[in-house]
Design a protein that fits this description.
The model has no long low-confidence stretch (mean pLDDT about 85). Strand 1 and strand 2 form a beta hairpin. It is built from 5 helices and 2 strands; from the N terminus they run H-H-E-E-H-H-H. The radius of gyration is 19 Å and the shape is flat. By secondary structure, it is mostly helical. The chain has one domain.
């Protein structure tokens, strides 16, 4: 996991409670990973090109799942697994679960800080 993804999701606050590790790992594996890979598109840098003040050329935003489905090197059986997994996911439910889990982490971390002093 790239550090910027961690900071974007959890912020810059120090998480002191070791018990949070299990919750955070669960978030990344079961909530953030599927949400990010199946429903959040990103644009990839294709080439650097100067156009006035702008220098970058990006492709059309796609999700990581869409990029895999468009790749010729991936087997059809793997693509079918991805399609089935995407079909069974509900992005709004994942977003709600993510918000609830983040609230839980922040509350547990605050309680730990208070009890630690």
């Amino acid at each position: 996991m790239i550090m910027s993804h961690v900071r974007r999701l959890l912020g810059y606050d120090r998480l002191c409670n070791k018990e949070l590790c299990t919750i955070i790992n669960d978030i990344y594996e079961n909530i953030w990973g599927p949400l990010n890979n199946f429903f959040l598109p990103s644009a990839r840098l294709v080439k650097k090109e100067r156009n006035g003040a702008k220098m970058n050329k990006h492709d059309i935003p796609k999700t990581p799942c869409e990029r895999l489905l468009n790749c010729n090197d991936i087997s059809e059986s793997s693509k079918e697994k991805l399609r089935n997994e995407r079909k069974n996911l509900k992005p709004i439910e994942l977003s709600k679960r993510l918000a609830d889990a983040l609230k839980k982490i922040l509350n547990l971390n605050e309680a730990y800080k208070v009890n630690d002093k």
